[in-house]
Specification:
The chain is built from four helices and 21 strands. The protein has helices spanning about 1-35, 150-155, 160-175, 310-315; strands spanning about 75, 80-85, 90-95, 95-100, 105-110, 120-125, 130-135, 145, 195-200, 205, 210, 215-220, 225-230, 235-240, 245-250, 255-265, 265, 275, 280-285, 295-300, 305. The radius of gyration is 27 Å and the shape is globular.
Length: about 325
């Protein structure tokens, strides 16, 4: 009798201990089966193992994560914005569905004249569409006067204007590529070292004739200076003698982000080449509509011109 009682007591203790150990698991399963819990909008810890935690600091100040999405609170006109969310999310901006990479990255450009606020609509699995608002900080756009450009490049005759239109159409068509590569997420480096002789967005006046705002950044450097790719990518356009831009190379960095390099004296790559960051792709020149040797470096994101100088600041 005493032995049976002792054995029964032992079994009771085992059962109680087992039930106690299962209680947290049952609670966790119950929470998982219920309504998803809202994640507090606080910056991710640098040591977080959350797969949606940012790998770099985004442009525009402190990040504002909402339900695992990371976007800047504000950006400047002409910025390239890199966001991060669930890899299975859908992201819409400006009436366009953005590509979301396997790592949850997406990217878009902010137009030079954008007033804001921007609205990015994101739908993650199991959620409704959540709008994310981003304020746009305005910039000053000084006037740049350029004198001494070849007259036919400032006011081209009809036959030359037709040639320019054909060449520009080829460039626009080459930018339609949009694939899953994440070269755009690299920290970009300067393609050439030198003084900035022309800034993105400034109004250009050539020999008294107003033209469209400057679409890139000009870097003064001696003729023949090696031009290096600022990030990895695929060469999508290469030509040695376009009328306005002279020697011209375009590199696609994935997800609709591309760089263009103009007025080159030499082109060292061809369409389809894979280039890595720091690889020599061309040489500085003064071809096309140019008054002296320099590199024009421009960037586009799905049809929107962005400022390369701001791209260089990403991740700092």
């Amino acid at each position: 009798m005493n032995f049976s009682c002792r054995r029964a007591s032992s079994w009771c203790l085992i059962v109680i201990a087992t039930l106690a150990s299962l209680s947290p698991l049952s609670s966790a399963r119950s929470q998982a089966a219920g309504t998803p819990q809202k994640i507090a909008a606080t910056p991710a810890s640098p040591t977080s193992t959350d797969p949606t935690a940012p790998t770099k600091r985004m442009i525009g100040g402190d990040v504002a994560p909402v339900r695992g999405t990371v976007l800047p609170k504000s950006v400047q006109q002409g910025a390239l914005v890199i966001g991060r969310t669930h890899q299975a999310a859908t992201v819409e901006f400006g009436g366009r569905m953005l590509r979301v990479s396997p790592n949850g990255l997406f990217v878009f450009g902010v137009d030079r004249d954008e007033k804001g606020p921007l609205v990015v609509n994101i739908k993650q699995p199991g959620t409704t569409i959540l709008p994310h608002r981003i304020e746009v900080r305005p910039r000053d756009w000084p006037i740049e006067r350029v004198n001494g450009a070849p007259p036919k490049t400032v006011n081209p005759p009809p036959d030359i204007a037709q040639r320019i239109a054909r060449e520009q159409a080829l460039i626009v068509a080459s930018r339609k590529r949009d694939d899953a590569r994440e070269d755009f997420a690299q920290r970009f480096v300067w393609p050439v070292q030198g003084r900035i002789s022309g800034r993105f967005g400034n109004q250009r006046i050539y020999d008294g004739t107003p033209k469209s705002p400057h679409g890139g950044m000009d870097i003064a450097a001696p003729n023949g200076t090696a031009v290096k790719s600022p990030a990895g990518g695929i060469v999508i356009f290469a030509a040695k003698d376009l009328y306005l831009t002279g020697g011209t190379v375009l590199i696609d960095h994935g997800a609709g982000v591309s760089s263009n390099f103009l007025h080159l004296s030499r082109v060292d790559v061809k369409v389809g080449d894979r280039v890595e960051q720091g690889q020599i792709i061309a040489a500085v020149g003064a071809t096309g509509r140019a008054t002296g040797p320099h590199l024009h470096w421009g960037m586009h994101c799905n049809g929107v011109r962005v400022d390369p100088l701001l791209v260089l600041e990403l991740g700092k």
